[in-house]
Amino acid sequence: MISFQAVTKIFPPNILALENVSFEIKPKEFVSIAGKSGAGKTTLLRILLVEEKPTKGRIFFDGQDLSKIEPARLPQLRRRIGAVFQDYKLLPSKTTYENIAYVMEVIGATEEEITRDVTQVLEIVGLEGRAQNFPAALSAGERQRAAIARALIHRPDVILADEPTGNLDPYNALDIIRLLLKIHELGTTVILATHNKEIINSLGKRVITLEEGRVIRDEERGRFVF
Amino acid sequence: MFISIKRILKSGWLSFSRDGGLAAATCFIMVMTIFLATSLFLLRDVGQFLISTIQEKADISVYFKEGAPEEDILKVKEEISEIPEVKSVKYVSKEEALESFVQRHKDDPILMESLEEVGGNPFLAALNIRAFQASQYQAVANFLDDALSPSLKDLVEKVDYYQRKSVIERIFALTSGMGKAGISLSIVLAIVAILVAFNTIRLAILNQKEEIKVQRLVGASNWFIRGPFLVQGAISGIFATIICLLIFTLICWFLSPKIEILFSGLNVWRYFTGNFFTIILIQLVTGIGLGVISSTIAIRRYLKV
Asked: Does the structure's ipTM exceed the value 0.90?
């Protein structure tokens, strides 16, 4: 489904973020990208979202070469990917409900579908009582749950989670990981980038470890090892 | 398609109504710009009125000697009328001059007493000559000096151009100066308006940059992102137009009688109501134009993620 082929990313003037990175991710896999801060985890996810272009190498998403994708086709690609960020990236001027509904509006869902699905997803993430609150009025954990709800509302093929627990306490962090596992069980591919040792060790899933931009380990039931 | 348009309109309205501070600031700047555009429109016509009033008052008078025969004066009138620079020539007989003086000063006992004391009709028959432009009065004066036949020239008591030359030239310099000053002021104010509007756009860009980025990341198309910002800009323009229209209605309503006292014949309220739809059009075009253009620049600059 996703294939990185000898991907290198150099930021000007000469900062090597990724070096010759190659791996494949199959549909419905749960993959953790582990590594210290600055190892290249975020760059890897940004390249997958086509926020960045690789300096060398190719990335395929369902057979489509992302290094050559036309700008006009980007919205369609991004609608197939749900993204969760450490800093949530919720729209501050929209309520929780509107933030989640926005993605449905983008794909052209009807009002009935939006009402039905958003209500359902709000229940799944436990935010039914916070639907009319703006992001500024939510706690960190609630914001991240809202971001996850937004990422999964339109049933994307892949969910990218970039340090989703980075700003959360252990209780909220555990909630978020449980949610991601639940989404994975429902058949969605999940790519989780984190430097949290406990989380990676508790998952018992595939782990790709990066160090200074290179893949140093790729294990089916990996652990956090440095 | 229809659903998307509806959502874009709704989203634009929500952003406008929720973003109170920025919306108010944008509206305020737009009110100032629309106010300026409307003022220029109104002032242009008020200025024209004042200029033509002043110009109407500039002329040359040729006074004829006591006892000059009327047919000779009318002959001079005919000759002067043939000069291409002359716009009009009006003959004022001794009697008409006296009557006009009495009419004008009948409430001034000192002047009337003086007139009685002088006895008879002290006024001279005259020709009032108007040219098309100030610069042409010299040509008329030259004609009276050189081209008039000596017999007719002898009838002329005095030409008051030389006495009023400096006044006439000053009036025309002033009116042409007013026109130039108006244009210069318009240019300066237009530049100020553009600078102010662009500064608002800069603030809008800084405020909305992250939001646009997030919208792109969740797969929104260009128009789904642009639309609400354009709608928001247009709504700001419409609100600013309404505010400006109210301000102008009040100003014209209250000041019109006072202005009419200062400049008789200049009724600002009548002019405002007579040109109401032109004014609305100017305001809407300025308001919505500014809103839409500023939003377009803002989103175009930050659309690439």
From this structure: no
